[in-house]
């Protein structure tokens, strides 16, 4: 008898389930505000000019498709660290961090989770309430108990920072705290610089292990601004982990490119930590793929492409902000019994819009507009061509 017969049905996570429903929807006017993908003014996923040039350069070199080092090339790893810490960072000069290329940001989280399971096997992992759907699932799959710390405040549409801190103080020493560096997914609400400083102290005093997920660097306020949390923790000379994703910032979703960076308070342990991480990769997928990393490395290490990329990233960031402003102002003009100005204060691709599960269902059923039941909207999928329709539909379901 087949051992597979005993597998119970496994539900898709809500994002993937709605994405499938969207794909099967035959209405031509359907609109996907569910998935975390940036689309441009025309509703297309852009191929950045910087990426295209780097690809052409790479292909022209005609390099053989050898295996890559388990950890990725030195140029890629250095570029990731430059982006995270800033080029003059003392973490880099003191060689206090090990970076490994990963299969997307998710792969970076997975390398980190597996590594932490080896060194903190009994740790509790705390993720924000709410968080990216896959955080809980990924850490549970790595064998951890996962709890949620308070984060979103539906009243103020901001962060319940006091409750968050109070909860974190109750965690046992050695617990792991997963933090979104910027552009919190799904709420769009980020901590202020002062709150980050307090959190660095709090996690230090309570011996909590920070794991920073940075999937949207450059989508919030700017490349350096969005890395503030990473840089503050780095200055504290402590051990912590970072998972980087380049899916959104380079519009390279399907190339699956990201990194895991392990920062150590003591440079003497870096090579041992890196050795263990490489072992985990070796026994998982052996070596990382070439293409995405070659593009990211070429863009970041070629000054002209780097500045082109920064301006393209800036364009995506500004366009999202403009969509936030137009959405908030248009909804407020329709007098829906409460202000939507909070949407402007949020960062990144997503907005917790305040819409209910019932609203989301009507938007889907009656208008073909796909929004998560939590009310999360992907603002990065709005454009001048679809905004009016979205505003009219939201107005209809809310009024
Ligand atoms: N972390 C967060 C908070 C995300 O929102 C995402 C993607 O949506 C990821 C990690 C994973 O990124 P990637 O697609 O590069 O694996």
UniProtKB/TrEMBL annotation:
Keyword Transferase appears in the UniProt entry: yes
Pfam families assigned to the protein according to its UniProt record, in alphabetical order: Aminotran_1_2
Name by which UniProt lists this protein: Aromatic amino acid transaminase
Organism taxonomic ancestry: Bacteria, Pseudomonadati, Pseudomonadota, Betaproteobacteria, Burkholderiales
Cofactor annotation: pyridoxal 5'-phosphate
Domain of life: Bacteria
Residue stretches making up the Aminotransferase class I/classII large domain: 29-394
Keywords annotated in UniProt: Aminotransferase, Pyridoxal phosphate, Transferase
Xref: PANTHER family: AROMATIC-AMINO-ACID AMINOTRANSFERASE, ASPARTATE AMINOTRANSFERASE
Taxonomic source organism: Candidimonas humi
Subunit and partners: Homodimer.
